[in-house]
Design brief:
- The complex is a heterodimer of chains A (475) and B (292).
- Chain A is mostly helical and 475 residues long.
- In chain A, 68% of the residues lie in helices and 0% in strands.
- Chain A is built from 18 helices and no strands.
- Chain A starts with 5 loop residues before the first helix and ends in a 14-residue tail after the last helix.
- With 292 residues, chain B is α/β, with parallel strands linked by helices.
- Chain B has one domain: Rossmann fold (3-Layer(aba) Sandwich).
- Chain B is built from twelve helices and seven strands.
- The chains are: A mainly alpha (475), B alpha/beta (292).
Amino acid sequence: MLFNSFTFLIFLPIVFILYWFLLKKSFRAQNILLLIASYVFYGWWDYRFLSLILVSTLVDYFVGLKLSETEKKASRKWLLAVSLLFNLGLLCYFKYANFFIDSWVEAWGSVGVNFNISSLSVILPVGISFYTFQTLSYTIDIYRKQLQPTPSFFRFATYVAFFPQLVAGPIERAAHLLPQFDRKRIFDFEYAKSGISLILWGMFKKVVIADNCAFFVNQIFNDISGHSSAELAIGAVLFGFQIYGDFSGYSDIAIGVARLFGFDLMTNFRFPYFSKNIPEFWRRWHISLSTWFRDYLYIPLGGSRGGLLMKIRNIFAIFLVSGLWHGANWTFVIWGGIHASLYLPTLLSKAPKRKVSNNEFKFSQLPAMLYTFIAVMLAWVFFRAANVSQALDYLYRIINLNSADISLFTGSSKMLLFSLIIVFGIIALLFFEFKAFKRSQAEVKLSVLSSIGVFLLILFLGVFKNPSDFIYFQF
Amino acid sequence: MKKFLFYILKVFLTGLVLAYAIAEFSFWSLRRGNFYKPSFVENSIKEKEVDYIILGASTALTGIDTKLLDSLTGLKGYNLAIDDTGLPNNYLMLQHFLNTDHQTKKVILVPTLSSLKETSGTLGDNDYRFLMYNKRGYTHNYYDELENGDRFPVLSSTKYLPFLGISYYNVELFFPSLVSALKPKKHNRFDEVGDYTYPSRKFKSSKEFETKKIDFKNDYFQRIVATCQSNSIELLVYFPPIYNTEIYWESSTLEILNLTNALKETKYFYDEIHVNTLGKTGATKKIAEKIN
């Protein structure tokens, strides 16, 4: 079920009414309702993959319990290995099997050894990268003795499948989300109101910004040679706004929906395009994934301790794996590599780390913001391109400066209309987000009037006829 | 909770009331203007009775020179064809024409081959162009009858919630309604008699000659025939030139002009199924001969 679908518009109020009016007195009953709702939400897309979530839940639930029962180091290691092997095995089979097979065949083919192995016919289950990381964090935290396992299977199953964030995050940590299922939720007006504000803002980012940008982005990336340098450069920027609107929009809706049920999900985006350098960008972009990799990969590897080479190795490791997490394609690995390379200068300069909650803005910071923005936009080309050679061709054609023609955006009244909607949408987005950024807020807060205005913008400027799927569903 | 529900009502009810008002304004503006063919029929065809109307899709819209036909026959007619539509839409246009206090002596129906292939009907890509008349029985019934499947019935629900259609078809309806409000006389790619001409370009094709058998069993085709009979309207079924193609049928009592294989050279064509200006003139002369 998609957040921007009519089905969800019916589904959400039904669950909300049952949750707060019928089952108000028992938080356990509310949990079961959330579990059923979550399975319906996921099963609406493809019920066959519910069994994967269920098996993943069962494995980590029992591994968690067993881990707390034993103090033997070897047994604990074995139990952790079971969880790691199972979750990463699922991920590898569904997401990376063909990538590894194809890369292996290609690598041997390049030295003249040919293998006749055909690709597997595998459908990627929506959200698998998100919920496997969520369950992994649970068992790792128990292994590290940072978390006590939950005795209730239903509570754990609800934590794994919690529908607002099941398919595209934020990737919640058990220590943060799980205890929220253990206590009675009391309806809080201000909290629920902020949820509505986030849902509206997220929907605006998705249907007005992302889906309108997709109209041009798809045309440009499907026919790179047919477009001028100027159109390609604008296309890269539009993809930057598309993916931001799409992914952060989803996160905002997820957080907003969770708040309607009295749950707090972690902030996933904090106005990343106002970052002044790449490390800051990564403290503002997909925070739940960055912090996951920081805690479960970067720090165990040694983090920023040790010598220069070790620091560089760790940075590259985290970014390359992060790239691969996004998709089974070398384009994502290179995208990660570019970010690692851009990350290093700031890391090595030993400049003091700025807190993302402190957003004092000075005009002198504008060049740094602009530099970071352009670097991120150019790196997105690898993220969006079908393969590495297409990405290189795209960048080459931008640098080539062959033509400043922008007739794609102005050639017909329809194109001009889409361009105007996008320009207006991006100005509105930057206006609201910069206001929130300057006030050091974690999110955009809409007044009643702004909410009504945004609601109307969604209705009349949004794309409902040919909506795009959420980009991160494929991850 | 009460406070929250009141807040929801305040935001969404106000939003919906405003959306309702904006949508009604959009429909009013589209009805008042001439942007799409349905309002053009209502506002620009001043004659109570015309000699002929042309119904069809893009092959009719771009394949007949109405002004030339008028000058060759001494008749007065309009091209009411809409691109990307099928026989159901042609039937809807005929109903609309008759329901807006107009009469015609003749209908030149230009059915698409793909539409004839179907026995029943499906919605066309441009059927939303009648949405400003969604409260009229024949339009609503049309949407109600054809809108089925997995998708939410946006077109038929617009009668009750007008913002649904305007929001769903915002590029196609909301923005044109703003244009229409400022320039009520503006047409969307058709002239004062309803024609549109494709820009010239060189057409090349390696298509082999083919023959296609057709029949006239389509339900909406039969409805058009019946409507013409009950309103004493002559019906001419016209098949325009198609590059390297000829159609045939077993038998029919209908008056049919088959020009599918009348123009053989690529110089007459814009693409395989559409004629260019030259082809349009040639085909129109043959229609005039048939009418005379």
